[in-house]
Structures are given as structure tokens and as C-alpha cells.
Specification:
Nuclear Transport Factor 2, Chain: A, Glucose Permease (Domain IIA), eight-stranded antiparallel β-sheet, metalloprotease, Cell_wall_metabolism_enzyme, metalloendopeptidase activity, metal ion binding, hydrolase
């Protein structure tokens, strides 16, 4: 459906929300329109906290959440007590489903209405009356759609976005989505065009809450940038360019095997702390308290594990492209870790110690290519896809649909601009 304001300056579209699919990889050739003209690799974006549109707020039910705990976080403890006095409501909402959505309408610190969406079809509605709270199950009362808005910047993203019908939450997300492309403080120019697709929750046909941006396009006179939201299997949500595969890669290795830890000795010639002689240091040392977890820096398998001379307790892992990594001076190995066992990047393989020839608690980390030791902090790291083959294909399907919708928005925004120009606007 397409609608507009009376002067035709703002375009709104809504359609049913795309079915969610399990994460899967993107094949190399996406065959999408070459709209984004500047290379960008997609970046992790911290999901913005729930924001209120009007008097409505949205909340995602967490594991072990109860109605009482959610209302407590909203500082509605008194409301919670009144709600639970109603045995029907207490029974209906006594076992909230993890990841379900819950919407609340609060006026003057008092809950007026609550909508619990168990799934797309089953919705429980709580309303306040003169006699207290009442609740009932309704079918198909809540609808989730893809809302689409396109507008041309005249003053600012905030002012024009609000005039177009965007919530504060969606506008804030736009600044996050394009933070690597557009300077929202200095780079916004009149005439720039924005198209955005986002979740719109509707109760009895009325929009009550708009949530996460699913895709967006920012077009200047010379360039156009597109981003599509996608959640990887590991749970990390990014906004990716939909028009290429080179940006969908990351280094196959972490630079260091600790989440924390101080670089205590670098790679190269140094005076040995025990023997006092100048010798080549073939790795990098990271100091950390005894027992600090040591992580595999990449996917691989255990080549060897055990005690080895000056290395003390040491593990060597085999990886892709003839690369091996070594972790020395451990206080202990991960329980049940054995030679030949597969490990994943980020798996704990042991713990910081000072075994072997060592003057204090640290991990000695080596990076070898075909047996030759390289500087772990400077060596060029091989790249791997950030998605599995299944994730890549799923992203391709999602991106194709989003790019088509963004193209439609672009045409409407252009037609709208022409119309305004013709009308002297």
C-alpha cells in the first residue's frame, strides 16, 4: 500500500513482514544492482535500547522473565501487584515465552494497556477499567509489517525524518547504520534522499511501535549507500553492503590469545630475561594473572600438547594455509583436551602460568607459516568469510528483496522531488 501526505512530499509504504529464516552464507555473486559505489565491509552495530513511540514501549521477553520482573524493570511494581490480583491474568501470563514481544502503554506512570504477543497469531490483551485490570486472548490482533518511508532532506535528518513519520528510535538507528559513510553532523546536504525499511507493529490496524531498521539507503548527488541488516549464526547483528562479497570477510586469526593482558615482550631481538644474552624472541608475550583463560586464535586442531623444555606446558595448533600457532608457559591445559582434537576460534585451550623458562605469569604466543616464525602482531592474516554457505545464501535472499524495495523507494523519492520542484517547493 502507498500513501502520502496531502502535498505529496512524504511516501509511506507497508507490506507484510518477510518471514524470518534461520541464518545461512552468501554466494559470491549476489547479482544485485551496483548501487553502493564506495567499498565498505559491514560492521557490528550495538542494538539500540527499546525506545518509546508515543506512550507505547516494546520489550523482548528474556529467559526466566516473569511479568513481575518486566514490570519491575519499568518501575511499575504497584501495577504488577494489581495485575496479579486478577487470577485470570495471572494464569494467562504466568509462563512467558522467551523472545516473545511485550508492549506496554503507560500514561502518568500508570499502565493503561499491555499486549503480550506469544506468536504472530496469539495475543493477550490487558486493559485498565474502573474496576481494575481485565485481560483476554485475541487472534491476529497484532500485525508486524515492513514499513517503508522515503524522504528528501531539507533541514536535518532529525527534523525531516520526524516530519516523514519516523520515530526517534528509527532516526537514531539511521545514524548508526551510516556512521561509516556519512557525517551526520557536517555531511548532510539539502537534496540528499533517504529510504528506510523498518519493523512496524500494528494493533487493530493502528501503528503502536516501530522497531529495528531492516534496510536503508542514503543517496547524495554523487553517491548512494545501502545497508541490509542480518544476524549471523553466532548471534552478532551487522549491517552489510548487499552488492559484493569482498566486504563479507574478516581476518581468520585473532592477534592475541587473551581477551585482556599486557604486551610484555614483542617479537625480535631482545635481552633474554633469564640468561641475560641478546637473542631473537620468536613470539610475543602477554602478561596476565595466573589462571587467566587462553583462547585459540583461529579454528584448527591440536597438533601437540604437553611439556616441552623451556616452553613449559605448551600447545601447538594446526590451521589453514600451513599455519601453526603455539601457546607456552601454561599453568594447566583445558580439561580433556587431546592431540588431534578440533578447536574453534575463541575456545579455551589452557590457562596462563609460568612453567618452563619464565620469570612470571604470561603466555608466549608464536605464529608460524610453513614452520617459519612470524611476528604475530604484524603478519598479514588470511581472510575468511564471516558467514557459512547457508548464511550466505539466506543473506542473498534477504538482500535481494530489500534492494528491490529500496529501488522502489528511490523512484518514489525522485518523483516526489520532481513534483515539489514543479510546485515551487
Amino acid at each position: 500500500m502507498i500513501s502520502s501526505t496531502e502535498d505529496g512530499k512524504i511516501i509511506h509504504l507497508t507490506e507484510p513482514l518477510l518471514d524470518s529464516t534461520s541464518p545461512a552464507q552468501i554466494v559470491k555473486d549476489l547479482n544485485l544492482p551496483a548501487v553502493a559505489v564506495e567499498s565498505f565491509s559491514g560492521y557490528a552495530v550495538d542494538i539500540l535500547p527499546d525506545a518509546t513511540q508515543g506512550n507505547w514501549s516494546a520489550h523482548t521477553v528474556e529467559t526466566d522473565d516473569t511479568l513481575e520482573s518486566i514490570l519491575g524493570r519499568l518501575e511499575l511494581t504497584k501495577t504488577s501487584q494489581k495485575l496479579l490480583e486478577n487470577t485470570t491474568i495471572k494464569q494467562a501470563l504466568g509462563n512467558l515465552k522467551a523472545n516473545a514481544r511485550l508492549f506496554t502503554q503507560v500514561v502518568d506512570d500508570s499502565l493503561q494497556q499491555l499486549i503480550y504477543a506469544k506468536n504472530n497469531a496469539e495475543v493477550y490483551i490487558v486493559s485498565v477499567t474502573d474496576d481494575g485490570y481485565v485481560g483476554k486472548w485475541e487472534n491476529n490482533a497484532l500485525e508486524t509489517r515492513n514499513a517503508k518511508i522515503a524522504f528528501t532532506v531539507k533541514h536535518s535528518i532529525q527534523k525531516d525524518g520526524k516530519a516523514a513519520g519516523l520515530s526517534k528510535s528509527v532516526i537514531r538507528q539511521l545514524s548508526q547504520v551510516f556512521q561509516k559513510d556519512v557525517d551526520f553532523k557536517k555531511g548532510i546536504k539539502a537534496g540528499d534522499k533517504i529510504g528506510v525499511i523498518f519493523e512496524d507493529f500494528r494493533y487493530q490496524g493502528e501503528s503502536i511501535y516501530t522497531d529495528k531498521v531492516l534496510a536503508a539507503e542514503y543517496a547524495t548527488a554523487k553517491k548512494s549507500y545501502q545497508r541490509v541488516r542480518f544476524t549471523l549464526g553466532e548471534g552478532r547483528t551487522d549491517y552489510f553492503r548487499p552488492d559484493g562479497d569482498t566486504e563479507l570477510k574478516r581476518p581468520a586469526f585473532d592477534r592475541k590469545p587473551l581477551t585482556d593482558g599486557r604486551l610484555s615482550s614483542g617479537f625480535g631481538m631482545r635481552r633474554h630475561p633469564v640468561f641475560g644474552l641478546r637473542k631473537n624472541h620468536a613470539g610475543t608475550d602477554f602478561a596476565a594473572p595466573r589462571g587467566t583463560p587462553i583462547y585459540a586464535t583461529a579454528d584448527g586442531s591440536v597438533k601437540s600438547i604437553g611439556r616441552q623444555g623451556g616452553y613449559g606446558n605448551v600447545i601447538e595448533l594446526s590451521h589453514i594455509n600451513g599455519i601453526t600457532t603455539l601457546y607456552g608457559h601454561m599453568s594447566a591445559f583445558k580439561e580433556d583436551l587431546k592431540s588431534g582434537q578440533s578447536v574453534k576460534r575463541g575456545d579455551v585451550i589452557g590457562y596462563v602460568g609460568s612453567t618452563g623458562t619464565s620469570t612470571g605469569n604470561h603466555v608466549h604466543y608464536e605464529f608460524r607459516v610453513n614452520g617459519e616464525q612470524q611476528n604475530p602482531m604484524a603478519v598479514e592474516l588470511p581472510q575468511v568469510g564471516i558467514m557459512t554457505a547457508e548464511e550466505m545464501q539466506t543473506f542473498k535472499n534477504v538482500a535481494n528483496a530489500m534492494v528491490r524495495d529500496l529501488a522502489d523507494l528511490r523512484k518514489l523519492a525522485s518523483a516526489d522531488q520532481t513534483s515539489r520542484t514543479q510546485n515551487g517547493g
